Amino acid sequence: PDNIIRIPVVVHVIHNNAAGIIGGTNNTNISDAQVISQIVVLNKDYQHKNADSVNTRAAFKPVAANCKFEFCLAEVDPNGNSTTGITRTYTSKANFTIAEETQLKSLAYWPSDQYLNIWVCDLRGTPSTQLLLGYSSQPGGLPGGDSNDPQANTDGVVINYKAFGTVGTLFTKYNLGRTASHEIGHWLGLLHTWGNFDSGYCNQTDYCTDTPVCANAFAAASPACSDNPPVKCTPDIARMIENYMDYSDDACMNLFTQDQKTRMRSSIELSPRRNALL
Ligand code: ARG
Ligand code: ZN
Ligand code: CA
């Protein structure tokens, strides 16, 4: 069935603002408005209501999909009380790397069979001077995916507070909320368009035939949103830089494909924990 699949979401704002001030410039304690702006983007991107879908090149328009996922901030918390779907937790720790995942997620967590947990913090790469926009756990059971579901208490996505939503202090190229669209794609079992592994050769797959094979992660191109210099694997078939699962700038992304839709919706059926969310 092609019904709307509704996912309850909790956003955990993990911040370093000892005074508890919310919002403003460079504040990890981001505003409710910033959180809500992200939910709006998710619902546009996953229902093909994003205005920039007009930028999808003609060759790819036929495969662009309305994935029919709806994301809603939770209205009831795990204790049955009403909630905004936003939690705020102060920590003296200024930022978090992937290696500090358990520490981060133990600061705030709601049962992952009832909510999609999104943690927002000052996220860092390795070493911690490096930028990291986001990362996600992947459901089990899909071709090319993990064989098992992730641990319950680490299931969910983590997003850099400067790449979350469309208002607040944001990275210039990552100011349209597409990092969460991308990471939730992983959470629903999608691989990057070049496959699991950045091989540099055209020998990997994302198990979606309607996303053209490509060799590696998208390197910043000039002019913006061009696939030039193209790393083409098939002559005359452009790289699908419009895909949310490429590494393009936010402004260049505007689609998921039909096969990606099928894969994401299957992940709900194959993963008992995802299925329990419904
Ligand atoms: N996992 C990727 C990273 O950490 C996210 C890429 C998101 N891309 C984007 N245009 N928002 O870099
Ligand atoms: Zn990714
Ligand atoms: Ca493909």
From TrEMBL:
Keywords: Disulfide bond, Hydrolase, Metal-binding, Metalloprotease, Protease, Signal, Zinc. GO terms for molecular function: metal ion binding; metallopeptidase activity. It comes from the Bacteria. The keyword RNA-binding does not apply. The keyword Cell membrane does not apply. Transmembrane segments: none annotated. This is Uncharacterized protein. Residues 148-268 form the Peptidase M43 pregnancy-associated plasma-A domain. Belongs to the peptidase M43B family. GO terms for biological process: proteolysis.
